[in-house]
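WARN no homologs supplied; continuing
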Amino acid sequence: MELYRRMSIQYKLVLPWLLPILGLVYAGITAPAGVMGELLLVTGLLCAAGMIATWLLGHKVLTTIAYATKSANATANREFNYEPPMLGRDELAHLIYTLVNLRNSVRHMVKKGVASEDEGVSASDQAATKQSNIEVRENASKVEAISRSNAVIEFNLDGTIITANDNFLDAMGYRLEEIQGQHHSMFVDAVYKESAEYKDFWAKLNRGEFESAEYPRVAKGGREIWIQA
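OK structure emitted
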């Protein structure tokens, strides 16, 4: 059954002819010579001609389906220059003609939509958008420069570690997967972790207050280092 599903349409169209042809071959072998043999030969030739005609029809159907598929894909990808051949006046040719009309309609709507967008955006809006894009690129460049030259770690407001750059990881002796999802308190000693000063440190950060100072931190293995924040 799976083989039949994967079989080309051409073969599916030819298959019904195989049984009568095999029957005629068997009859031609077993039937007596004479008029019956000639009749079987003529019938066999007619069946063979029908099978060839069916094969050619299947080839035409497959070719049209290939053109239709290529045309539909070209329209979906906005490749509007593809022109499928339109031969004949039967239903298959009408299918190609319909797809070409669809392609032309989509192309017209796309061009109209682009023109409407261009008309709707004023010069001042375009200038503002351009300036905004420049600022975004500049800020991204600054952040990248800071990350290259400093040890950077990122937290949620509850102290959970989101990520850290290589400079920070090298300084602390950890890999990213060892600290990601852990709490910032893994970098302080047990006494400071329970102190009011440490709780106040996080309270200020949650209020948006920032203090620049040097802080003692505990690296992997209990090694103490000082960092500027």
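The chain is about 65% helix and 5% strand.
OK
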